[in-house]
Amino acid sequence: AKLLGKHNIKVYSDIPEGSYFSLSVHCGSKDNDFGNRVLYRGQSFDWNFRTNFVGNTLYFCTLVWGPRKKSFDVFKGSWSKDNDFGNRVLYRGQSFDWNFRTNFVGNTLYFCTLVWGPRKKSFDVFKGSWDRNDYHHDYIYVADLNGVYLSHDPNNLSQNLQFLFQWD
After folding, report:
1. I need a surface site. Which of 93, 141, 147, 157 has the fewest CB within 10 A?
2. What's in the GO CC field (predicted)?
């Protein structure tokens, strides 16, 4: 079990105080159905797991707040192998960075292509193998009036939120 990463998933309700509707949460996977949960402001629902050996672990959730609804994947084991971060334009002093873990098979690869005027350069920025350390990763999904946010920092939710989705 040490080679398979441990992950924590948390769905947190930040629905406005006094809202007529509570947040209804239904999460699961192909093998696990966690059922419907009702969350009020400040409440959360969480679970943890280890990724499976073949790397295709998938968990999903549907959040419903009154007439608003959003369904999405909260963890997808293949996220780490086929990421395209798209094109970025950087000006002097700016940077672009990301965090990741090497995969179980040991063939993690990230590459970049830099273009500056007529100049172009492609190169591997990371080509490595499994680091053999147990790791722990947090995925905290926060639902509020505007939609759904993601944080990977359980100690400081309000400062480290990334907006993901508006309500449908």
Report:
1. 93
2. extracellular region
